[in-house]
Amino acid sequence: MATRHSLPLLPILLGLCATPALAADIASGQRIAARWCAACHMISPGQTQSSPDAPSFASVAGRYEPRDLRLFLMAPYPRMPNMPLSQPEIADLVAYIRSLGPKRYEPEPLEKDEKLPEAKRG
Asked: Which tens digit of pLDDT belongs to each residue from 52-82?
């Protein structure tokens, strides 16, 4: 049973639970990258100039997992500008970066009556 003291926390708790379910927006991430990152990083295949010291987004996408990218973007890094990005903006930017990298294998769901193949024993 909820007490009157716990009721004001309910919207906050519901918001925290709902946040991971929100889908990231790749187009929004591209706009954020153009604003904050393009001066140094190669953010798209068609870009003509970038800093030789900054890795391209395609190479970053191939090297780092989404969780690592999110953590990196949440903490200040001395060689990058202070980017006041919200959690949804970080998710969008990570989604855009990941869209530039290698396509990762995601298994197809099994059909209703389909079984996994048994491992060969040698």
From this structure: 999 999 999 999 999 999 999 998 788 888 8
The reported pTM is: 0.66
Task: Tell me if 50 sits within 8 A of 58, measured CB to CB.
Answer: no
Calpha distance 1→110 (Å, rounded) = 41
Q: State the Cα–Cα distance between residues 76 and 78, nearest whole angstrom.
A: 6
Ordered by start, the domain boundaries in the chain are 23-99
For the chain, the C-alpha Rg in angstroms (whole number) is: 20
- Return the CATH class of domain 23-99: mainly alpha
Q: What angle do CA 108, 111, 116 make, to 5 degrees?
A: 75
| Six token digits for residue 79 | 């060689």
Asked whether the beta carbons of 20 and 81 are under 8 A apart, the reply is no
